[in-house]
Amino acid sequence: MTDRTEKLLSVRYVVSMEPHIILDSSKCETCEQKACIYFCPAGCFTEDNGEIKYNYEGCFECGTCRVMCTNEALKWDYPLGGYGVSFRIG
Amino acid sequence: MPETFDVIVVGAGPAGASAAITAASSGLSVLVIERGEYAGAKNMAGGMLLAQVLQELIPDYWKEAPLQRPVEHHRIMMTSGERFLEIDFGNRGFLNPPFNGFTVLRQKLDEWLVNKAKDAGALVITSTVVDDLLYEGEQVVGVKTRRPDGDVRSKIVILADGVNSLLAQKAGLRNKFEYHDIALGVKELIVLPAKTINERFGLTGEAGAVYTVLGDFARGIPGGGFIYTNKDSVSIGVVVQPKALAQQKVTADEILERFKARPEIARLIEGGRLVEYSGHLIPEGGFERIPKLFRSGLLVAGDAAGFCVNTGIVLMGMNLAISSGKSAGETAIKACKQGDFSASTLSSYLKLLNQGVVLSSMKTHRRAPEFMRSPRLFDQYPDIINNFMQRLVTVGPKPHESMYSAARDEFGKVKLFDLIRDGWMGVRAL
What we know:
- The structure holds 2 protein chains of 2 kinds.
- By secondary structure, chain A is an alpha+beta fold.
- In chain A, 16% of the residues lie in helices and 20% in strands.
- Chain A has helices at residues 4-8, 36-39, 64-68, and strands at residues 13-14, 21-23, 45-48, 51-54, 74-76, 84-85.
- In chain A, the strands form 3 sheets. Chain A has a two-stranded antiparallel ribbon.
- In chain A, strand 3 (45-48) and strand 4 form a beta hairpin.
- Chain B is an alpha/beta fold.
- Chain B has 17 helices and 19 strands.
- Chain B has helices spanning 14-25, 54-57, 106-119, 166-170, 194-201, 242-248, 252-261, 263-269, 318-338, 343-346, 348-355, 357-364, 368-372, 375-378, 380-393, 403-411, 416-429; strands at residues 4-10, 30-33, 48-50, 71-80, 83-90, 101-103, 123-125, 130-136, 139-145, 151-159, 182-191, 208-215, 223-229, 233-240, 273-283, 294-295, 298-300, 309-310, 315-316.
- In chain B, the strands form 4 sheets. In chain B, strands 1, 2, 7, 8, 9, 10, 16 and 17 form an 8-stranded mixed beta sheet that branches. In chain B, strands 5-4-12-13-14-11-15 form a 7-stranded mixed beta sheet.
- The radius of gyration of chain B is 23 Å and the shape is globular.
- Chain B starts with a strand and ends with a helix.
- The model of chain B has no long low-confidence stretch (mean pLDDT 95).
């Protein structure tokens, strides 16, 4: 089975110093489902000792978390122009 | 650069480029603003473009567009354990003008379309985010970009900023998405020699095939697999409901891996090399969830307007984007001619959308989203249809049963009420 981490190496990103999505992880403490771990196609949400961590650098900007995080723990915006994911083939 | 553009288009995907081509071709001053570093940078698709809509925009498009393969074969597959049923509809007629579907890769397609807009006289700037709209009273009069002194004014703004359209939300045209308004697609682009693709997929020359696959690999999650043959690569992926992923504690990638691991699928892509992994949302809310499509000085097109139809057999998205972009461009032309950008003038956009493929298809297939959410469709029916086929073809030493008794037994497993309801809904929805 191909590991998703390996697949993600095929994706081109222009990483901004400034995160476009900000996670208030204190809100995740009361979240039971922690659905983000499963629905994020780029695996940007991980759980570490019960704490949700978010890595904006690998984001597809697909918006799944914007719709699905029922906890309103995310401040979601687009990255600065020209930054973020840059699909080469699509 | 004019002080005030006639038209500002937000987003340089198929909807935005089509709007810009249309408006600029009639002599309007058009500015296209794209947040990606190039047109298409944020875009991916399965993908098949139902390309006939392009003919109205760019005559004989097939002679110059960066298309992959004209689609000759539409294949539907249902998998269950060791079994699968495949229906193959082939039409050699699809290999000639006016064609039907073409497989496409988005960066090339989007780049070509936006270059057509430039050729028509539109100004295109990339790497620029539009954060909000400018208003005078109720009237939209331009955009606020995320750049120093970044306000740009226009008589009319066309939002073609994609499925997440934060601007449509800010402009009060639509509410927040509900979870069933969206589906998540993930895809791998796998490179294989054209000759190998032709051999494995049973194709000749440039002809292509597209697959829609339902079955047990999706673990009962509403959604399915897809395969599209490009010239020398294969697009393979799954479309799934994010809510169900969380409930089943599985990722879209794990579903894709299960799909790829099925022997009848694995043999198609064996030895291929992954060159790009990608993912995107699909607005699958359907007709009932279309936002408000205009207000004074503002029109919405493409994914931003929720224009998408998924019948399980065809997926319309790019074609609706192109067609709605063109209609938005035409509406802008009319408004500029009349010098009237009020909501009542712009409402002629709806008339154009109704005359063409966009709103008519959305209306015809208005029940498709609900039908596509039936859990039986993804779980129970692929099993039953394979059980049924197995009973038809298995002959042992004992008396062979009739097709009727096999059908009665197998389809009898579904509650009569559900069967009638799904059948009725399917017929009406698709």
